[in-house]
Design goal:
It is elongated, with a radius of gyration of 28 Å. It has helices spanning 3-6, 28-42, 61-92, 108-113, 132-139, 171-187, 201-224, 230-242, 262-284; strands at 143-150, 160-167. Helix content is 49%, strand content 6%.
Length: 288
């Protein structure tokens, strides 16, 4: 499979499984730099034409075949992963039904009644009962309370400790909480994310897991295979590029693009290939 043929592949697939798309390590910057340069130089360049049948076979011909097998297996896994994710999103997180009811808006009286404050963060800047992460605090028979208490006479001024306890809501607070819960569940029936999976979902998930194992095993084989030619190393670059969620003609910028997982492992493998090649060449140089 040549780099030109890769341009016809679809790339709207889900990112690789966490096992093959891990978080960056301490070596990420080095590996990013190492893998980005050959990718940038290799992508726009077409692979050389196949040599005549009488020509000597490339020493890395078996590696080329293994990489083709890995790229196909990884593509199959990503297609299945996307299908699983789409199906899961559809039944676990359906869209709410129309406009949010006014009952779910935060009221000043909610605080006076003793209702827990809805979770606030940069993503949810206003207190409002529009997400399960907020409403779930009202579902229990008892509610969690917490407060910060100043530590008196501490050598460091301004030190606090947190105190937490459970309380039973008043009748008025329980009535208001039940009103919020009923309105939320009717408006967003899938908001709790506990809907049962549809028929065929578990089977699709098992197929996805099997495809992930096959692709992972092939990836390990490719990374462990010692390339003996520059063509073999560029083939590993192609294998790494095939697993990245991007267009095939993208040129990577190591200052903004995170290259990890398979790409990082391939870069380490290529580094070992270069080291072995350099050591073999050095052994042929006569000593002075």
């Amino acid at each position: 499979m040549t780099l030109e043929k890769n341009k016809d592949q679809r790339h709207d697939f889900a990112p690789a499984h966490p096992a093959r798309a891990s978080q960056p390590t301490r070596r990420s910057f080095l590996m990013n730099t190492f893998v980005a340069l050959p990718i940038a130089s290799a992508v726009p360049t077409a692979a050389p034409a196949m040599p005549p049948a009488s020509a000597k076979p490339n020493p890395d011909a078996a590696l080329f075949a293994l990489i083709d097998e890995f790229v196909a297996a990884d593509k199959k896994y990503r297609e299945l992963r996307s299908a699983v994710d789409r199906m899961e999103d559809a039944f676990r997180h359906p869209e709410p039904r129309g406009k949010m009811p006014d009952v779910l808006r935060w009221r000043r009286s909610d605080k006076k009644l003793g209702l827990p404050m809805p979770y606030i963060c940069p993503a949810f800047p206003k207190p409002i009962w529009d997400r399960e992460i907020h409403v779930c605090s009202l579902r229990g028979k008892k509610w969690l309370r917490s407060e910060r208490v100043l530590i008196k006479d501490h050598p460091t001024k301004g030190m606090f400790y947190s105190r937490m306890w459970m309380v039973t809501p008043s009748k008025a607070a329980r009535t208001r909480a039940d009103e919020i819960i009923a309105a939320f569940d009717e408006w967003n029936p899938g908001g709790r994310g506990d809907a049962p999976p549809p028929r065929g979902f578990k089977k699709l998930q098992r197929e996805c897991d099997r495809a992930d194992k096959v692709a992972s095993k092939l990836q390990d084989q490719v990374c462990g295979w010692r390339a003996t030619t520059m063509e073999g190393m560029l083939a590993k670059v192609r294998a790494a590029h095939a697993t990245l969620w991007c267009k095939p003609d993208k040129v990577f910028d190591v200052s903004t693009d995170n290259i990890s997982g398979c790409a990082e492992e391939m870069a380490e493998s290529i580094f070992r290939d270069l080291q072995s090649m350099a050591m073999a060449e050095a052994s042929l140089i006569p000593s002075a």
